[in-house]
């Protein structure tokens, strides 16, 4: 049975689902600036999850929102002197391209916040009628003192919220921890009509409303980054329970861990980001996707280009192992291990360890057994969204590669070994200060599509990979 860690109960639980109706909401991006690797991790790890549910024959309705109106979007658009819609549309196109290159499933519904403003106004109105919302000179706010279970998801205290978190500081709020449902617009800012005055939605109310409109009053899974637990998801619960107090809202909360760069979390607010599409362009989406598979989704994941390069080589080994093999689920042992690892809170690093152990044991199998193992390994990776097609960098004509490396007395068997020898020869020339000859080697290998940039600690890579 599938067991997952529920952030709300803070324990791993056996999930109870309707086979014919599983409803999932993933918090999508606020389209203020280009996607970074952290966005990629959230998209990919929950893509693994949704694909696995489909493998288990669950019928899934999957929604991922687009936050296309927000204080930061307004600020960025003003800095660029463009309309907020122009900025949002441009940035969203970058996300679309990244998701496509990472081979993420397209959600069944992708609601934009600005398309649901009338419904958001109605939702806020209901909160006011139910006694949870109040109106001030600066906007409409949620009175957290009226919701008894506030902060149950995050486990924070009210004092921690007041002293340890950036919260809206408008002086006309009843309490510092109250949060905005509707913000009255300043001159020149985007705005919509409402019963309380011209303005725009608060961030949190957008998701509560879009979930209600697209998935209903109670959903099975709400997914997102761990950094969204407070205040975003905490406030979503308060809002949704404020409107539908007898509904559960979310049965299981799933959160992925942050990416770390040099031990520090990767986030826009910290100015500590790596742009996702830059690495997809350099390494290919499949390699970046595989990098995310190597860590448990709930754990922090350290990022470096060395680790990305290591992921590339490891994925190449899997591609080579399954080359010219038709994927079929014919090895029951491999399938059992796959299910056991994924049912254990999506333990993908354990799965990879088990798969490589079985690959190493393949030499002891009969030919037909080894072929079945290869077929099933390929099947599992396809379930997880990997195509395992030898990419351009891996399917270059072997005759061409053999002829090229033979010029340097290198016998070509596979690309990593050949490049290691090639790099050693070139480094020897550089150490002997024969820079002209070294440059000729660099230029010649570029003609077959391999890039070596001196001074970059990235090894080598395929041009336009």
Report on this structure.
The protein is α/β, with parallel strands linked by helices and 465 residues long. It has three domains: 3-261, HUPs (Rossmann fold, 3-Layer(aba) Sandwich); 322-391, Up-down Bundle (Four Helix Bundle (Hemerythrin (Met), subunit A)), CATH 1.20.120; 398-462, no CATH class. Helix content is 45%, strand content 13%. It has helices at residues 37-55, 71-80, 84-101, 117-129, 158-164, 203-214, 229-243, 276-283, 285-293, 305-321, 332-343, 348-360, 367-383, 398-406, 415-431, 435-446, and strands spanning 3-6, 11-14, 22-26, 60-64, 133-135, 139-142, 179-184, 199-201, 219-225, 250-256, 259-261, 264-265, 301-303, 450-452, 460-462. A four-stranded parallel sheet has the order 4-3-9-10, covered by helices on one side. A four-stranded antiparallel sheet has the order 5-6-7-8. The two termini are 39 Å apart. The mean pLDDT is 92.
